[in-house]
Specification:
Length: about 500
């Protein structure tokens, strides 16, 4: 009997690809009888339908059910027939041992060296204590040429920006340099409407500079906006829902400036009560208009103030509430990040000997006198370095990574009410992190920067694996890493 089993979401692709991977559909012989008295059912078979050249590895998953009672399963093998001889890879049990009636197994296949397009056939073989192994199913992985890859902007400590264009085959190609001055927070956005992402930099010295993308990693200096104080942080987005970009800056002189439609002069200028450090836009209350979140440094604690669009005057904003976490002693706020335009807002802060992550979201109300919802708060030992949002889990939802420095640097993923270790970085001390989907499998991978640049591929629900070309040696230490498609036009 033949049944058609559709592969579910790909559970793990590691490496460098260029396009989204479709679901595998595999013809599976549902029941095969081994030479012993056991009957086996291949209940589930998951593999990617398509990968791109340069993909480091793919995971193939299977669930084998033993319906008989005599001969236990002792081995499950993934077999790749080739002209020069077959390759055999052990499929390891997920729970650690082949001792149950239903076994979920997985094999990681090194596909980095594959050089031919087209289908690569595979078979699943099962063996017992008596008799030879038996083929119980199979499928294929189709190799395609690269379509697109994300790129990087590296900023060194001397204020020089280095565009690196992704090759899609295990590396990046440097594309020149831009002398920008030390940026407070680089942003990538299509400023001039040509569908190429441009670079927005608050470079201090009372200026926000725009660099226009010329393609192939080349950027030319465009216009700049002068501010009265040195810019500490910037944020860009559509504040008034008119489908045009707006700019928010906070300056060392304690000013919060809003420039609708990227105007040269502030549309609104307001005074902050404390020294600003970070800035973020997020629609926390779901009304279609993003709020402005400002991280401030007080005498002994960090504060986050929310500025909300006034109902009667749609073109002005006013402070509404503070995000106060009960029992949290924020010595300093180290990161603000959001999960998409209407997702939660995350606050990463330091306190003596530990890093604390707060999640704000749900049915929050940011009007004056309201109480926004603190959905979770969790701490881990160490000094917080960075907060990075992205898609890191099997379910595909947006979550975040938190990098913490202790005896080594550990990267945690937020899962529900817990920070789960995903990566421990030895041999280097990263100062910058960025998330980007390097292999086109729908989840984000990780780039760390410091004295060297390292690339980590997400194994979904497992660890990160360092890419084959990593680490990259650098001429000067990297202090900021920004990811984006720098050489491709958007929709």
């Amino acid at each position: 009997m033949i049944s058609r089993i559709a592969g579910l979401a790909l559970l793990g692709i590691v490496g460098w690809g260029g396009e989204a991977l479709s679901q595998a559909v595999v013809d599976v012989p549902a029941v095969r009888t081994m030479p012993s008295r056991d009957s086996l059912v291949l209940e589930l078979l998951e593999a990617p339908s398509d990968i791109a050249f340069g993909t480091m590895a793919v995971n193939v998953w299977a669930t084998v059910v033993r319906t008989g009672s005599v001969d236990p399963i002792t081995e499950v093998t993934l077999v790749w027939p080739r002209e020069d001889g077959e390759e055999r890879i052990e499929m390891r049990p997920v729970d650690g041992a082949l001792d149950s009636v239903r076994e979920q197994v997985v094999a990681t296949v090194d596909t980095y060296a594959w050089t031919q397009t087209g289908a690569h056939e595979f078979e699943v073989h099962v063996g017992g204590e008596t008799g030879p192994t038996t083929k119980i199913g199979g499928g294929s992985v189709n190799v395609k040429t690269r379509i697109s890859t994300p790129d990087l902007f590296l900023f060194d400590e001397g204020g020089v920006a280095h565009p690196w264009i992704g090759t899609g085959a295990g590396g990046f190609t440097p594309a020149g340099v831009l002398t920008t001055g030390p940026p407070a927070r680089p942003l990538i956005a299509d400023v001039n409407g040509d569908r190429l992402p441009d670079l927005v930099l608050s470079v201090g010295f009372g200026e926000v500079a725009f660099y226009y993308n010329q393609g192939a990693g080349r950027f030319d200096s465009g216009h700049s906006i002068s501010t009265e104080g040195d810019v500490v942080a910037t944020a860009i987005g559509d504040l008034d829902a008119d489908d045009r970009l707006d700019l928010v800056t906070v300056s060392s002189d304690g000013a919060l400036d809003i420039r609708l439609d990227l105007a040269d002069e502030p549309t609104q200028r307001s005074t902050l009560t404390l020294a600003p450090e970070l800035l973020e836009l997020a629609d926390l209350d779901g009304d279609g208009f993003p709020e402005i979140f400002v991280a401030l440094l007080g005498l002994d604690t960090g504060e986050v103030h929310v500025w909300t669009r006034l109902e009667a005057e749609t073109a002005s904003w006013a402070p509404s509430v503070r995000l106060v976490a009960a029992g949290a002693n924020r010595a300093r706020i180290r990161g603000l990040a959001r999960a998409g335009p209407a997702g939660p807002l995350w606050i990463l802060s330091s306190s003596p000997g530990e890093a604390t992550l707060e999640s704000w979201g749900g049915p929050a109300d940011t009007r004056p006198g309201s109480e926004p919802v603190l959905s979770s708060m969790v701490s881990v030992p160490g000094e917080p370095i960075a907060l990075v949002p992205g898609r890191f889990g099997r379910e595909g939802s947006v979550t975040c990574l938190v990098a913490v420095r202790g005896e080594a640097t550990t990267v945690y993923e937020l899962r529900g009410q817990e920070l789960v270790p995903r990566l421990e970085i030895a041999g280097s001390d990263p100062a910058a992190l960025a998330a980007l989907d390097l292999d086109g499998d729908g989840d984000d991978d990780l780039v760390t920067g410091g004295d060297e640049l390292r690339v980590w591929i997400n194994l979904r629900d497992g660890d990160f694996r360092e890419a084959g070309e990593s680490p990259y040696l650098l001429d000067s230490p990297v202090s900021i890493v920004v990811a984006g498609n720098l050489d491709e036009r958007g929709p």
